[in-house]
Prior knowledge:
By secondary structure, the protein is of the alpha+beta class. The chain has two domains: 2-128 and 265-284, Probable inorganic polyphosphate/atp-NAD kinase, domain 1 (Rossmann fold, 3-Layer(aba) Sandwich); 130-261, Probable inorganic polyphosphate/atp-NAD kinase, domain 2 (Tumour Suppressor Smad4, Sandwich). Helix content is 21%, strand content 36%. It has seven helices and 20 strands. It has helices spanning 15-27, 36-45, 60-63, 74-84, 110-119, 190-193, 276-284, and strands spanning 2-7, 31-35, 53-55, 67-72, 91-95, 105-106, 122-127, 130-134, 144-145, 148-152, 160-166, 169-176, 178-182, 205-211, 221-224, 229-234, 240-244, 247-251, 256-261, 266-271. It is globular and about 60 Å long. The mean pLDDT is 92.
Amino acid sequence: MRVAIYGINFDNSFDSYIQELMNQMDSYGWEIIVHEKFLEFLTSRVKLKVDCRTFNNDSFKSEKASFLFSIGGDGTFLDSAKIVADTGVPVLGINTGRLGFLASTHKEDIAGALKFIKQGKFRIIRRSLLCLIEPEGLFGKTNFALNELTVHKKDSASMITIHTYINDLYLNSYWADGLIISTPTGSTAYSLSCGGPILVPGAQDHIITPIAPHNLNVRPVVVPDDRVIRLKVEGREGNYLVSLDSKSVAIEPTFELVIKKADFYINCVVVDDDNFLNTMRNKMMWGLDKRN
């Protein structure tokens, strides 16, 4: 079995865990390939005692990996989704810091998680994505988002107006700082901080959430994910920002944005009793009462 590893910089407290991770995979006879940039960081921090070779974003598909291990936080997991794209390679999120919704395997649980994977005792959760189909080529090959697409004002304190259509039916014109189109996965990210609802990962919906709307009667709207969403933006400035997860591009108001559900999924590895409801309850600290 071939396992790809992608990650970002981490603090010293994780050094021993990454060494144990590599050693355990090697003891299982798994072939290890490491993203070239991450390997540079690893070799500067720990003395690897296993054989591994490198891959990059362009070569990943041809590697035909069985899994990709994403080492970092939820942001690293989003980057990993860009690498995996439509290959269907399952992703295991290993958290090096705070509790994450996507990177939910803690460093203390790595050994157990790998053992479960070796024994085939894991589940695959499919997570849907958004796809920006117009303007074509704005984000190159990575015109999809696991969390959200965001339209936001740029270089101005003035609001923008976002005319929004669902399957060519007029929904609303939002006077706001911006607008978020979120997947169920993204419902616990930017959309949540702007007052959007939480959706379970398997929900077949998208959320339209305004950012600081001028009209206080405006609320987030949940729409089925088989609908096509079209946005027309107006503003005093000559351009505005469009973001797919963490990547942003400035665009002129003459362009329309057309968004739909992507035709592929990101397969997330879930081991043991790890589940979205447990993570959400712990993250939100539900059920905790300081009086107890």
